[in-house]
Amino acid sequence: MGQINVEQLGFALGAQVTGIDLRQPLNDLSRKEILDAWHRHLVLVFPDQDLDANQQIAFSRNFGELERNDFQPHYRDPDHPEILLVTNKHLNGKPSETRNTGRNWHSDLTYTNRPAKASLLLCKERPPVGGDTLFANLYLAYETLSKPMRAFVETLEAIHDVSLIKGLEKRDPQKVADLKRTNPPVAHAVVKVHPETGRKALLLGQRIRGFVGYTEEESAPILNFLNEHASSPEFVYRHRWSVNDLVMWDNRCLMHLALPDFDQTKTRHMIRTSILGELSGYYVKDGEEPEKESLMQAIASVS
Ligand code: SIN
Fold first, then answer.
1. Which strand (E) or helix (H) includes residue 44?
2. Are 134 and 266 in contact (CB under 8 A)?
3. By three-state DSSP, how is residue 272 classified?
4. How many other C-beta atoms are found inside a 10 Å radius of the C-beta of residue 70?
5. Atom 5, ligand 1: which residue's CA is nearest?
């Protein structure tokens, strides 16, 4: 008999975990049960967890070293660098810069060379309707490709670019310039083996500007196809938040999208911790990808 109760929420992914108070230290058995359920369901929803920032940090530390948000220092909680405030509340008398966080498909921090392994998001306030989050299963996205397509995507490296975060133009230009300077484009393999489950998953999203070695025109249709395939409704779980839901997801086999489907005059206030993943990928210098024009020049010069 387990210590926690796990109830599946969606066919592709998602489970609710009850029977546990996350303010209390986790014993080894509960930790193992949570990890087993997480590997099976990819997104775990812990309802009714009224945690403060320190309690969320303490719970998150059970699963690894925490990201201190040095890649995005302007958006973290000044008192807790491990906490990213995803909020539309006014901060210091101004609309929060993170009010539009997550508005295109992504996995957290893939624009760095150490994408987050896990993220834990706690809902402190929510609008009366909407403000949902979508999660897409990237194992299924890989496994349902045809055999030749799987072989093809195994050869691809995608260039993840922080400037493709949707809504950056609505943020303070100085802070955005800092974000871009500290996060040059980084290439990651499109197919990754999950280090704990051994299953292969795609690493995709809408913050990819193309594939290493391919022109923009070549990359765009491939990327569009892969993102559309991966976000097919049958691979997606939609989470409708309740206050004090803590949701823990695995960025190594999921991408997610925060919907702007709510009245923006109503508060949506979330606090996020992220667990550091493995070092991966390499920085790509601007101009390293071939442009159609330069390829034409090269062909002209040899013909
Ligand atoms: C995020 O992209 O990490 C934020 C998700 C959300 O606010 O629902």
1. strand 43-46
2. no
3. strand
4. 10
5. 258
Q: Which atom of ligand 1 is nearest to the CA of 84?
A: 3
- pLDDT value at residue 288: 59
Place of tokens 């810069």: 97
Query: Can you read off the two tokens belonging to residue 269?
Result: 């206030």
Structure tokens that stand for 137 in this block? 């299963």
Cα 269 to chain centroid distance, Å, stands at 18
Distance 78 CA to ligand 1 centre (A): 19
The two three-digit tokens of residue 226, written as one number: 């892969």
User: What CA–CA distance (Å, rounded) separates 170 from 176?
Assistant: 10
Q: Does domain 5-286 have CATH number 2.40.40.10?
A: no
Residues having CB closer than 6 A to ligand 1 are 86, 101-102, 108, 119, 121, 133, 256, 258, 270, 272
- pLDDT at site 289: 59
Q: For position 301, what pLDDT does the model report?
A: 58
Measured from the Cα of 86, ligand 1's closest atom is 7
Q: What is the DSSP string of 96-141?
A: -TTTTTT-S-B-TTTTSSS-EEEEEEEEEE--SS---EEEEEHHHH
Token code pair at residue 168: 């950056």
Candidate from 270, 273, 274 with most ligand 1 atoms within 8 A of CB, to mutate: 270
Segments making up each domain of the chain, as ranges? 5-286
* The pLDDT value given to residue 139: 98
The rounded distance, in Å, linking the Cα atoms of 120 and 45 is 10
Q: How does DSSP classify residue 74?
A: G
Enumerate residue ranges in the chain where pLDDT < 70. 1, 286-303
Q: Are 274 and 108 in contact (CB under 8 A)?
A: yes
What's the pTM? 0.93
Question: Tokens at residue 290, please?
Answer: 């071939």
Question: What amino acid occupies position 29?
Answer: L
Whole-number Å distance between alpha carbons of 95 and 83: 18
Please choose, from the candidates 68, 38, 81, the residue with its C-alpha nearest in 3D space to the C-alpha of residue 276.
Answer: 68
